[in-house]
């Protein structure tokens, strides 16, 4: 039996990708709460407005890189600024269709990023990543 994560956020502007990640997490019984944000801006707004909401904050964020307005890199830069205000530690995994070395190397510059995985993600890979959490 896999370790369950109390709260996972999926931040991805692609509804099909979000649905697939959520469905995998449900099928694998990997999380108690799964929240989908279709924009990084909305997720940042919530984090900024609720930094002490222990039970509502995610334990893990599955973050897409390429989104309109606020992309994954912008999210990470802003998250880096506000993470010290948050009541709990949040792990971030980048989930992207890009396997470009530039993106993979840029991800390594963020200590907040615990993993980089390319889409599509299998249930086995998602379990493996979350068990390291």
Can you put this structure into words, describing what you see?
With 133 residues, the protein is an alpha/beta fold. It has helices at 15-27, 40-49, 72-82, 101-107, 123-131, and strands at 5-11, 31-37, 60-63, 91-96, 113-118. It has a five-stranded parallel sheet with strand order 2-1-3-4-5. Helix 2 runs parallel beside helix 3 (72-82). The longest helix is centred in the N-terminal third of the chain and has 13 residues, at 15-27.
Report the span from N to C terminus. 15 Å
Q: Which strand order do you get reading across the main beta sheet?
A: 2-1-3-4-5
Beta strand count: 5
Classify the helix fraction into a percent range.
25-40%
- Radius of gyration, in Å, reads 14 Å
- Assembly state (oligomeric): single chain
- Topology as a string of helices (H) and strands (E): EHEHEHEHEH
Structural class: alpha/beta
Number of helices: 5
Shape: globular
Instruction: Return the average pLDDT rounded to an integer.
Output: 94
What portion of residues belong to β-strands? 15-25%
For the sheet with most strands, the description reads: 5 strands, parallel
Describe the protein's topology.
Layout: E1 5-11, H1 15-27, E2 31-37, H2 40-49, E3 60-63, H3 72-82, E4 91-96, H4 101-107, E5 113-118, H5 123-131
Parallel strand pairs: 1-2, 1-3, 3-4, 4-5
Helix pairs in contact: 2-3
